């Protein structure tokens, strides 16, 4: 799980967490991303990236429009093979 805190005085102040899980068949699979965001804005656009843990190559990126709630998430096909080391998630952008 990754925690990110926005910079005070920036356009938006926020706190977010993200977690991801992979379901594979062979080297292909789907990735489920789930997270939370809270802060001083009414809405956020959150981009989460999923990387191969060993090579740090991008597997999938997804942007979530968060309005009226503090949670976001979804399941998407992996766009690259998933290695045996597993995956990492990170928040790439919050707007």
Topology, number of strands:
7
Total count of domains = 1
Please estimate the helix content.
under 10%
List SSEs in N-to-C order: EEEEEEE
* Oligomeric organization of the protein chains: single chain
Q: Please give the order of strands in the largest beta sheet.
A: 1-2-3-6
Radius of gyration: 14 Å
- Alpha-beta classification: mainly beta
Structure description:
The structure is a single chain. This protein has 95 residues and is mainly β. It has one domain: Immunoglobulin-like (Sandwich). Helix content is 0%, strand content 66%. The protein has strands spanning 2-5, 14-25, 28-39, 43-52, 58-67, 71-77, 87-94. A four-stranded antiparallel beta sheet has the order 1-2-3-6, with no helix packed on it. It has a three-stranded antiparallel beta sheet with strand order 5-4-7, with no helix packed on it. A hairpin with a 2-residue loop joins strand 2 and strand 3 (28-39).
Notable characteristics:
mainly beta; 95 residues; Immunoglobulin-like
Question: Helix and strand layout, with pairings?
Answer:
Layout: E1 2-5, E2 14-25, E3 28-39, E4 43-52, E5 58-67, E6 71-77, E7 87-94
Antiparallel strand pairs: 1-2, 2-3, 3-6, 4-5, 4-7
